[in-house]
Specification:
Rossmann fold, MRET, FAD-bd_8, 6-stranded antiparallel sheet, binds flavin-adenine dinucleotide, Four Helix Bundle (Hemerythrin (Met), subunit A)
Length: about 450
């Protein structure tokens, strides 16, 4: 239950401040005051723990996948923002300085300006942060600039939030809870330090060089890198890397790409990159010899914990083939005799990548290869339309394929539809691995 451990760990961290507050045994106030304080404690803890859900920590992403971590990060941040916004509104006690005899602020809510302003700043920044994340595409800000602003604003929200808790919080005056806030703040700071300073520094010892860039169909490129250091990069077929080509090691110009090569094929790694936005549009112009940096491996789209699967079904949409061909290549290179099926959907024939190699794998490895085109050319003999439920039924509604592993990668609507069909066919969810290429 790897996901269960993560959920328990998460709950333990975000509920710890509430637990410490409760353990203080202070005289209770009205229900609205307690609710308001509770939401404030919960929101602050959730915001601090968000820094561990940056999608860069293998202990987290390796268990549930980066896309699940990133979507949880987004959802939990929005929930924390709602709690934080409700927190000042719900207080029902008079907003006045506490009488001198009321040392635990039982009768009033702390509203002195020095206690309040860090909270107001944190709240405004948090609202801006979540708004900018939801409306990122509409802002037109370059992704890398947006990421930098996102990180800086998040760090400020955390800092001002903890400052406010320590100054204004009734329960946070307790040394135990105050220490917990400072501890969580330090962990959040270290998470940022690790991702943006320490990990890049470590990468300096492992430089890569681009050895080949070749066109592989419609606006799609194969980029091959070779290590300029002794040794290899350990990874599993199907995992992905944060790739920085031609920028300084500390640059935020790095993007996630699945590794399309097979680990047992040697030291080189290969990527299949489809032009998408500002950065990838320039892929074809990368010159061999260009310096590159890799932060890897990440991702859970691997056969690692599935030795007992009796076959492997790979279902790809467009450039979603990248991790799946890595898996297929590895199965072939290691002489794995389990049966394989590759269902590969594209819009038109010009988008089919590694066509000849796939034909070769179909002949030599016995992979059942099913091409699906929604805009087929004249004389096309493969499947047409979408990767539909009936097509999936045709191939997988068989008792001997229920114990297979199903590995999916492609556009989110396709993944949702394929996953629903497989579940309807009785494939257990534990046998379905999927990864999407967008975090939005
Ligand atoms: C786990 C994973 C594996 C991927 N594997 C592949 C692959 O093998 N081949 C492939 O062609 N594409 C892959 N992608 C998609 C690829 O990362 C984006 O197409 C690429 O980052 C776009 O960069 P850009 O500079 O052209 O786009 P930009 O113009 O900078 O941004 C366009 C959009 O791309 C996304 N994006 C850009 N930069 C990042 C980033 N650093 N992190 C996350 N999202 C970003 C955002 O949604 C952004 O709005 C993968 C994505 C993920 C999350």
């Amino acid at each position: 239950m790897p996901a269960g451990i993560l959920i328990l760990g998460y709950l333990a961290l975000v509920l710890a401040p509430l637990g410490l507050a409760w353990a203080q045994g202070l005289a209770p106030r009205g229900v609205w005051d307690e609710l308001a304080s509770g939401l404030g404690l919960l929101a602050t803890a959730m915001i601090l723990v968000e820094f561990l859900l940056l999608g860069r920590f293998r202990a987290v992403t390796g268990r549930v996948g980066s896309d699940v971590v990133m979507r949880s990060h987004q959802l939990l941040a929005r929930v924390a923002a709602v709690f934080a916004l409700l927190h000042p509104i719900l207080y029902a006690s008079p907003r006045a300085p506490a009488p001198v005899w009321d040392v635990t602020h039982r009768t009033t809510v702390e509203t002195s300006w020095p206690a309040l302003w860090p909270g107001i700043v944190a709240l405004l920044l948090l609202a801006g942060l979540v708004g900018m994340a939801i409306g990122r595409d509409a802002t037109g800000i370059r992704y890398q600039h947006w990421r930098l602003m996102h990180g800086l604003m998040a760090a400020m929200v955390a800092g001002f939030g903890v400052w406010h808790a320590l100054r204004a919080g009734r329960y946070s005056q307790d040394p135990g809870l105050a220490a917990l806030w400072l501890g969580l703040l330090a962990v959040a700071g270290m998470a940022l330090l690790w991702v943006y300073i320490v990990a890049p520094l470590l990468r300096l010892r492992r430089p890569w060089r681009v050895t080949e860039v070749r066109n592989e169909g419609d606006r799609t490129w194969v980029v091959t890198l070779t290590p300029d250091f002794d040794g290899t990069m350990p990874y599993r077929a199907g995992q992905f890397a944060w790739l920085n080509v031609g920028h300084p090691v500390f640059s935020l110009d790095e993007n996630p790409f699945s590794i399309a090569s097979a680990p047992s094929a040697g030291r080189e790694v290969q990527f299949l990159i489809k032009e998408h936005g500002d950065g990838t549009r320039l892929t074809g112009q990368i010159a061999p010899g260009t310096r590159a940096w890799l932060e890897a491996p990440h991702g859970h789209l691997t056969l690692a914990a599935h030795d007992d699967a009796t076959g492997v079904a790979l279902i790809a949409g467009g450039v979603g083939l990248a991790p799946l061909i890595g898996i297929l290549r590895e199965l072939n290179a290691t002489g794995d005799t389990r049966p394989t099926v590759l269902i590969y959907g594209n819009r038109h024939a010009g988008q089919i990548a590694f066509r000849e190699e796939l034909d070769e794998l179909s002949r030599t490895h016995g992979t059942e290869l099913v091409h699906v085109l929604s805009e087929p050319p004249d004389g096309w003999t493969g499947e047409t339309g979408m990767v539909s439920p009936s097509l999936l039924k045709q191939h997988f509604d068989r008792d001997d394929r229920r114990d297979w592993l199903y590995v999916l990668c492609g556009p989110p609507p396709m993944l949702r539809a394929v996953e629903a069909t497989l579940l309807n066919l009785g494939i257990p969810s534990s046998r379905i691995l999927s990864e999407q290429f967008v975090y939005d």
